Amino acid sequence: MEKFLSTLPYDQLWTWALGFCKNLILAIVVYFIGRWLIKWIIKLITKMMERSKVDSTLYSFLSSIANVVLWFLLIIVIISILGIETSSFIALFASAGVAIGMAMSGTLQNFAAGVMILLFRPYKVGDFIEAQGYAGVVKEIQIFNTIIRTGDAQIIIIPNGLLSNGTMKNSSKELYRRVDLEFQFEYGASYTEVQNAIMSILQSHPQVIQGPVKDSNIVAAPWIGLLKLGDSGVTVVTRSWCKGEDYWNVYFNLNETVYQMLKERGFMFPFNRVDVNILNNK
Fold first, then answer.
1. CA 192 to CA 189: how far, in whole Å?
2. Residue 5 pLDDT more than 80?
3. Which string of b and e fits 51-63 if b means at least 16 CB within 10 Å?
């Protein structure tokens, strides 16, 4: 640079210095204005995400990414104002981005899936889900992983990419759940008596919904039907509805109550039986 400046005539040197000072002043002005704009944009993004009830983990992470991108663009603009060639810087950052992306392809996939989960909310913290062979309550949704707690208090960490691309069952998505139960009794028993006895239990249970619910097309009154005629007994099926948080209590309580009732009324439960006939050939 000194050798280059020494070869310039005085008038050209003065012109270059004057132009550089103007560009420097302009770059400083652009820097302060850009810094103010970046802060304003980040605050605007944060407020918009908070109003749309986006998960705090997501909007803090996206705000950080937006902050980095905006500062990068501001630096490129300032370098360009100072007359420095920017194509080499852009090419360098692009090459670095490609290399990092290839090295972290799995991590980036989990990140993208985490963003989609936090935006579209197929499940949320507190939901009971079944996925990847595990079932439990969602304890935390992170950018790269989802943490669930199983019924036996085990913590399972599942990458978001697997949850996004695989099949998942969310039992907490709907307000109501249907309780399906099957009961068997021996041939010869009166189906009508069994049906009336079980229906009386369903209709008297405080947590079983007794009729259609307004604004719901699926919730109905308790129902009983004859499911099949088996090898050793008759199977009936019951379908009743309850609130999602009452599901397991209703499930186990109905099983216990129906069993006690059928036993007290003398209904026999079938079991597999093998008859052996011994032939005397003498």
1. 9
2. no
3. eeebbeebbebbb
